[in-house]
Specification:
FAD/NAD(P)-binding domain; FAD/NAD-bd_sf; 5-stranded parallel beta sheet; alpha/beta; flavin adenine dinucleotide binding; binds flavin-adenine dinucleotide; 2 domains; 17 strands; 7-stranded mixed beta sheet; monooxygenase activity
Length: 355
């Protein structure tokens, strides 16, 4: 155990795109900083996506600050291309990332913060939490779920359709993960798609670029106190990527409203209808990974931290980057995180001094 903790101006927890974008801005600030990431290699959540996952925006629209993502062989970059980009980005700017280091706790230490990871600890003047969401998959609580004898898997752990060949598979969730996993599983299995509401399919020509432009318009209007009219369609709505369009042509993009309860071998609706199911894939999203902030008492009942911009209201030397709309419009995307990384570092520089 280190006798006295290592000191640093800014400690960034995480090593995904949000942490790297923040680090790029910190590099220009004159402040000392360090990133701690629990993964063994670079790439953050992209290390854990499914095999066929592709981005829904072209490379130039999927870039973090400084060096843009190199053009992809196809229009939309693959998961492997994103991992390669983030790895090379980190090396190119010689960003100081320690791996694998899982941060257990952030605690107050006078006007500093103490960051603990097992036996190791650091003392920082400011902390940026950029731990994402993938390590906290969310599964809604349906009655009888523990009685269901079949296999259950969250999209966080889904890799490929092969293990489901010939089975009856229920896919729960109406976002992009649900639609994309349904599209490929339905090629080898009989599928049942459950969504709380009818899914919102975007027009075929709408991809991540258009969604980001709309988010930017909303952000600008908000900054200027204007109200604007925009077509319906948010970052969670379904982008009609090629495999999803192909599934539509096979007529499988048909969803049913939620059932009332699980049975041992399937599910049952309130009106008595039932369906036999061998496996369930939960595409029901994620929650922010904020366990390490519990000692500060800043995590609210909804699992988030109260922020103004990205700064914690109840802990002024703590910032949160990249978790979702609550930490900045489109901040949980590659192209969108730059804006909040920049504003976060400007605030840190103003608070600590630097340039
Ligand atoms: P992460 O990538 O999750 O990085 C956080 C890092 O912190 C991870 O390495 C994690 O292991 C680590 N960590 C967590 N807790 C600790 C701890 N206590 N101590 C140390 N380290 C810790 N975005 C787009 O821009 N375009 C797309 O097309 C797109 N498609 C998507 C498709 C899917 C299926 C999903 C799930 C997301 C998609 N996104 C897309 C969204 C987005 O880009 C990701 O969610 C992104 O990974 C968020 O980056 P991050 O750096 O905030 O978090």
């Amino acid at each position: 155990m280190s006798a006295s903790p290592s000191a640093v101006d800014v400690l960034v927890i995480g090593g995904g795109q949000s942490a790297l974008a923040t680090a790029w801005c910190l590099k220009r600030s004159g402040l000392s900083f360090l990133l701690l990431d629990e993964q063994a290699t670079p790439g953050g959540a992209w290390l854990h996506g499914w095999d066929s996952l592709r981005l829904f925006s072209p490379a130039t629209w999927s870039s973090i600050p400084g060096w843009p993502m190199p053009a992809s062989a196809g229009t939309y970059p693959t998961r492997a291309e994103v991992i390669d980009y983030l790895s090379r980005y980190e090396a190119r700017y010689q960003l100081p990332v320690l791996r694998p280091v899982h941060v257990d706790a952030v605690e107050r230490d006078g006007d500093h913060l103490r960051v603990r990871a097992g036996e190791r600890q650091w003392r920082a003047r400011a902390v940026v939490s950029a731990t994402g969401t993938w390590s906290h998959p969310y599964i809604p609580d349906y009655p009888g779920r523990s009685e269901f004898a079949g296999m259950q898997l969250h999209s966080a752990h889904y890799v490929a359709p092969t293990p489901f060949a010939g089975q009856r598979v229920m896919i729960v969730g109406g976002g992009n993960s649900g639609a994309q996993i349904l599209a490929e599983v339905s090629q080898v299995a009989e599928t049942l798609w459950i969504t709380p509401e009818p899914p919102l399919f975007l027009a075929d020509e709408v991809d991540g670029r258009v969604l980001f432009e709309r988010a930017t318009e909303r952000w600008k209007a908000q900054q200027e106190g204007r109200r604007i009219e925009q077509p319906v369609g948010g970052l969670g709505d379904i982008v009609m990527v090629e495999p999803v369009r192909e599934a539509r042509s096979r007529g499988v993009l048909v969803s049913e409203r939620p059932f009332a309860r699980f049975t041992e071998h399937g599910v049952e609706w309130a009106d008595g209808r039932h369906a036999e199911v061998d496996a369930v894939i939960w595409c029901t999203g994620f929650r922010p990974a904020l366990d390490h902030l519990q000692p500060l008492g800043v995590v609210e009942a909804d699992g988030k931290v109260a922020v103004e911009g990205t700064r914690a209201l109840r802990q002024p030397n703590l910032w949160l980057v990249g978790y979702g709309e609550w930490t900045g419009a489109a901040s949980a995307t590659l192209i969108g995180v730059t804006r909040t990384a920049r504003s976060t570092v400007s605030e840190i520089v103003a608070a600590l001094g630097g340039h």
